[in-house]
Amino acid sequence: MSNSKELILTAEAPKLRAAVVGLGMGTAHMKAFYQNPQTVLAAIAGKELERLAALAKEFKVEKTAADWQELVDDPTIDIISIATPNALHHPIAVAALNAGKHVFCEKPLAITAEQAEEMVEAAKANNRILEVAFNYRRRADIGMARELVASGKLGRVYHSRISWKRRAGIPGLTSWFTSANLAGGGAAIDLGPHIIDSLFYMLGEPRVVAVSAVTYGELGRAGYGAMDNSNYTQGSAGEFQVEDLCSALLRLDNGSSVALEITWASHAVDNEDISFELLGVDSGLRIFIPRYATENTLSLFGDENGKQYTRKPKVSSTGEGHLAVINEFIEHVVSGDFASHAGDYALHRTAIIDAMYRSAKAGKEVTL
Ligand SMILES: NC(=O)c1ccc[n+]([C@@H]2O[C@H](COP(=O)([O-])OP(=O)(O)OC[C@H]3O[C@@H](n4cnc5c(N)ncnc54)[C@H](O)[C@@H]3O)[C@@H](O)[C@H]2O)c1
Question: So what's the pLDDT on residue 102?
Fold first, then answer.
């Protein structure tokens, strides 16, 4: 009996040692690596030292650091998981990949397309995985829409409308989120990665060829639009360096188009509403997600024998996006198939957002 137990123990593959940088959204990463039987949460880093100690205790972490570099320099770490302000994604990921580690990174991949390209190149040059936390694509409604598009139910999807609209959702004037250097932008780079990723995932990965966009920072600069729990005082303009609204038209390589609108704040009725409308020749669909709703969010519209129909297939999402994407990332690391997970699709999302900012700045359409 004891012999067979020993045999099982010695046959067990050693667990992958993961380190998480960042103590905000990073806690979702910590939970996932802590729970997964194939990983050990070995180290965490962050600037808030009391919180760092409390999280180390909660997740039984061996090692803590105030700065990311110490974790990247640790040869016993296999995985670096990044949940820091956007501008740090690039230096941490490139250093980690060059040190031979696999990288899981929060969205956006980077603050510019050039940085994102360097990250993907580093993943490929070192034969390591680079994946991004696109947790919204794990929603059941997005998955159902992807299947409907792939099955041909919609026919040719010639135009899509996507939006994420907040009435008062600026994440905090004194935080890194409204600093141009640290965030790389405002509403578009914060909320855009999720809706852009989900749309291109549903559409089967067409490529964007041209972008025309406008951005405004009117409400933030005037002191309106703070998120409820932010430390930003209503009416105090403070230093608001980024946009609170972005509107764009994207032209795709298959001849179709996308109209996009993202607001952190606007004097309008929408209040934390996410919407995807896919207009196909044979039918159309809408996913409407008011205030992060998880139930019955998908509608199908069509015309059968001259009679219009609207159907609402039953769909319910779990809201466990981070757990699902990190479990999948770990499976990819364990599989040894690194080449097909080097961050190419995340680079496409960052290139689109980069082009939106370039177009808004130039005041004209730009090509990718
Ligand atoms: N996928 C999602 O749904 C989702 C949701 C929220 C945020 N995010 C992303 O997560 C990232 C972090 O956002 P957040 O809301 O957690 O921000 P946050 O401000 O709450 O946390 C940032 C963390 O980074 C740490 N940090 C900063 N500099 C560091 C350094 N040099 N070394 C080590 N740690 C350092 C800070 O100490 C802090 O703990 C952003 O890129 C954001 O876009 C993603």
Answer: 98
